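[audit] Reproducing an earlier prediction to check determinism. Same input, same settings, fresh worker. If the tokens differ from the archived copy the diff job will pick it up downstream; this log only records the rerun itself.
[audit] input (405 residues):
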Amino acid sequence: MIQNTHGRRNGLSNPKKWTREEEDILRAYLEQEKESFTPGRAWGQLQAEGFSRTAEAIRKKVQQFRKNEDLAKTSDPKLIAKLISLVNKQPREIEEVCNLLDVSPKKARNLISVAVERGYTIRIAENGFIHPTGLQPRTSKTSISLPKVSSTLRWAVFSDLHFGSRFCLEEEVADFATYVHKEEGINLILNAGDSLDGQRVYRGHEFELKYHGFAQQSDRLLMHLPEFPDLHYAFIDGNHDASFWKLSGLEPGAETVNRAVARGRTDLTYLGPDQAQVVLGEGDQGVIVEIAHPDKAGAYAKSYHIQKYVEALQSGSEPQILFTGHEHDYLQIEVAGIFCAKCCTFQSQTPYMARKSLRPALGGLIIEIKVSDDYQIREWSCRRISYNGPKLKRHLALPVRKIVL
């Protein structure tokens, strides 16, 4: 832990980041001195309460307070829904949006900022038009601290949870996350997409849903993902998640994190849509891991799609390890020097899968690798924690109907 000792005045610390206590003191002062407030006067009077900020720092913080108040005034969900509906139909000039929504240009820009913060994929172009951007792939790697223990790295992976589906195994998801953390000492779980079941993904999909809409499905996800102080989840969006973007322009992964933060949770990291690369290690070094949700399934050979995925990787961008979701299947294989695994699922067989003659492999994976000092992989272990078994059969048991002749 590093302590900041700069900017001390009268024995009081003045850290870079404002504390909640300091912000509360300043807000209370603003309430009392609405008409006569000036940064200099505030600085003089607040010194008596042990307040050590400069007048300039106070001025900037008050500006931030007022900006946040303006944003709050434009955060009406109905107004945001109207904005997204207008922009999704066709690009709009800022003046046209102001007229259609009956708001000022400043309020319109604030409304766009709030929409982007909430996960909607829109932006103002250089020509002044507002238009949807689509789901933007992340072009950089995400570094996640994962210390080595005797040259060994360990983490877990799951995929295709499908919260919202009648066939989502909610209790099993919670059991797996609890087990790998409490019993195996694992502090990181990667998620290869389709956390939510989405909406209107295929014909008849609505009849397989227990919870409809993004809000209900994300609530179920946050309710059943266990929260532990040392456990972190990093995830991408899959095709089922992306159905919400297609219907509303909302980027579900980004908004799921927002909803988690609103509940006081900081254990979820959204890595982007479809695929992402992470660096697991310490400092600038680590093992390069890719998680992906390719929109392919149902090949005759179980390894076909994962082999084609590796073949299509751009030269120089190959990971050391690859995990894929979407196929609800389990396989581990080495392709072109890359350790690969399909990630199973926590959704039991749906009517759609039954029609397609697809049988899910249920469970999650525990990964353990041994690496050299420069993070070259020396040993690889991929262990499946299976949830196929008697408990599942009881869960899916159909009632017996007696017919008396």
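[audit] rerun output stored. Observation attached for the diff report: The chain has a mean pLDDT of 81.
[audit] end
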